[in-house]
Design a protein that fits this description.
single chain; mainly alpha; Serine Threonine Protein Phosphatase 5, Tetratricopeptide repeat; 2 domains; elongated
Length: 218
């Protein structure tokens, strides 16, 4: 095993000091290889040493402008710091440089969502869903985006799929309840799912509020 592999193993064993030493050795041994900088940056980010982590990711990008993982890791750092516009640009770079899996598409969608640009988020949630249709977080975000554009026929089965996999998913219950309330005459189903949402999560004030509004209306 090389120093990077040993460092990752040390992280898995929660020996972060040893991981830092091993990633340092990896960088010293191969100062022009980006993987050591990315690994060390991810370690620092997990320890909330964000300024240092940022420098390591930026160094990796300077060494290799096609380092998709470096763009993705730096984007995550900015997303967590509420720097959504910068994060979106970096997720786009990670995708353009061939990063695999659904996560970059999903996080790009979340960035646009945070920026209030739901129309831009929808195709990225859709792409993430196409890559991994089993991830509940991806399914929920995609269904909510669909419903926001009144694509209720498309959103409903996805929300039902979530509840089949996780019967106590309060957000899925809430959004399915709202969907029934605004797109059907099935008041009983709407109230059922809204009640489930605030029963599962008593602090879900919005679910309770919508439930009360529908109850008063009928």
């Amino acid at each position: 095993m090389n120093f990077n592999e040993l460092g990752i193993q040390a992280i898995q064993e929660e020996n972060y000091e040893k991981a830092a030493e091993l990633f340092t050795k990896a960088i010293e041994e191969n100062p022009n290889e980006v993987i050591g900088y990315i690994n060390f940056g991810n370690l620092l980010a997990s320890m909330n040493e964000n300024e240092r982590a940022e420098r390591f990711f930026q160094k990796a990008i300077v060494l290799d402008e096609h380092a998709a993982a470096a763009y993705y890791s730096l984007a995550n750092l900015y997303f967590e710091a509420d720097r959504f516009e910068e994060a979106a640009k970096l997720y786009e770079k990670a995708i353009a440089n061939g990063i695999e899996g659904p996560d970059a598409y999903f996080m790009l969608g979340k960035s646009f969502e945070k920026l209030g640009q739901t129309k831009l988020s929808l195709p990225y949630f859709q792409r993430a869903y196409e890559i991994d249709s089993h991830d509940l977080q991806i399914k929920l975000s995609y269904a909510i985006a669909l419903a926001s554009f009144e694509m209720f026929v498309e959103a409903e089965p996805i929300l039902k799929e979530i509840l089949l996999a996780d019967t106590e998913n309060a957000d899925a219950h809430y959004n399915l309840g709202v969907l029934y309330a605004v797109s059907t005459t099935n008041t009983e189903a709407a109230l059922h799912h809204l009640k489930e949402a605030y029963t599962i999560q008593p602090s879900y004030d919005q679910a309770r509020y919508v439930y009360d509004m529908i109850s008063l209306r009928n």
